[in-house]
Each structure stands twice: as C-alpha cells, then as structure tokens.
Amino acid sequence: MPELPEVEVTRLSFADRIAGARILALRVGKPLRWPLFPVLGHSADDLVGRTVTEVRRRGKYLLLDMSEGILLIHLGMSGRLIFSNAALPLAGAHDHFDLQTTQGTLRLHDPRRFGAVVYAESEEAPIAQKLLANLGVEPFGDAFTMDYFYKSIHQRKSPIKQVLLSGQPVVGVGNIYASEALFHAALRPQTLASRISRPRADKLHAAILRVLQNALDLGGSTLRDFANAHGEDGHFQLQAAVYDRAGLPCHVCLVPIKTIRQGQRSTFYCANCQRP
Ligand SMILES: [Zn+2]
Known about the structure:
Elements lengths: L3 H15 L4 E6 L15 H4 L4 E7 L2 E6 L3 E5 L5 E5 L10 E7 L2 E6 L6 E5 L5 H7 L13 H9 L5 H6 L9 H10 L13 H21 L39 E5 L2 E5 L7
Antiparallel strand pairs: 1-6, 2-3, 3-4, 4-8, 5-7, 6-7, 9-10
Helix pairs in contact: 1-7, 4-7, 6-7
Bound molecules: zinc ion.
The site of zinc ion has 7 residues, from loops.
C-alpha cells in the first residue's frame, strides 16, 4: 500500500512537469472508491481548458490545484500515478483515470480500485473537508513538535503501534514506518501509549522523522504495487530493520524478529532490542 513517503515521491516526480499545463481532456474508466464528481452539476467537460497550477500533498492525498477547483487524488491500496509527456499506450483494464494536458498525461493505474480522484470546488468545500479535515498533523510540518507528540500520545490508552496507525496524532506513519520507527526507538509495539515516558516519546518522535526522511530519500518503498510517476521502483524495503523480517536475525542483536497481529495488521519487532 502506498504510504506517505511514496505519495510524496510521486508528487515530486511530476509536480513541476504538470504545473502550468492546460487540461485537454479527461477519461474515466471503471468506478473508483468515490465518484469523480460527488456533487451534482459538474462534469468532465467543465474541467477542459482549466490550468493545473500546483500539486500539493495533505496526508496521503495529492491535491491538484487548478485555475478553478481542485482534484483530490488518493492511491488507495494499489494505485500508481504515471505522468508522461510522450503518448501513453491505450488505457488498459486497470487504468481508470487519464488527465490529458498540454504538458503530458497523468494516468491512474489501480488494479484494486480503492483509489479515487475527486473533484471539489475548493479545499474548503464540504466534500474536500470530509476527506481532509480529520487528518492528523504533517510529520514535516511545524506543528509536529516533541511537546505536541508527547501530549497527544500521553492521552491514549491503546498500544503505541495502534495510535501511530490511527493517523492521529500524526499522518503518514503506516504499517511499515510504524514498525520501523518503534524499532529505532527501542519501544515494543504493544506498549500502551499513555505509559510512554517523555524521554522515550522524544526518541520515538525523532525515529518517526528519521524513518520517513530515509524513505523519502530512498524514493519510497518497493512494495509490490508501488512505482513512482516515472515508473521507477523505490528501494526502502531493502533497508527495513524489522518490517517483513519475521524469523530473520535482528541486524543489531541477531535474535530472530518476532511477528504478531495487532488490529488485523502484522507487526514486527525485536523482543531483545525493543522494551515494553
Ligand atoms: Zn535486536
């Protein structure tokens, strides 16, 4: 599943190249998670002639700003965006959205169709707010301070891994990055968030930033369905300390990595290096 670093790498791979492009046509394939035009009175034809001004990211949503209105794009479980200024092959069975512009075509390839492209009149429109308003703070934003992080987790009586996966207090710490950050902070995933001391919370805060930054630097993870908008695979998975390494020796202490289920997700940790 594409996580925040993959989404950000995808954004960086085409944001500059699509900025200033005029929309020539839209092609919509099979239905995605939500309809492109959830509000009656808009159609694909309305978007033709508008200019793409900027591509931003909020959580795992890409916000494609146009001269009028925005498109919110989510990659779901298996979505991949391709932007090409050369002619793309005819849309295949899993290509469900094409935005054809004067500077190239943006295509969403999404075999499982949990992704979505949604039009909103603005970021403040109710449909956009429904998707964006409850997101936690951005990990690389000014609001994600050590104070804020400690206070947020201190109120939560769930295991810290679950708290991180909830997207609150911070967005972008999905299953891989939560497992990795907890390893680097030497914290067991089962530890109740409310019982984590300030020094350990600070260590986890730093580990989250380091793990996400590392993933961004490496171009996102190589998880099965992900490739960035140039079609290149990332390399993060090769660097994982615990994620998907059940039974393999810990890189630090050589004790086999354990795996447990938490809230229907697999968690990986080293019972020797990570303490409750
Ligand atoms: Zn270890």
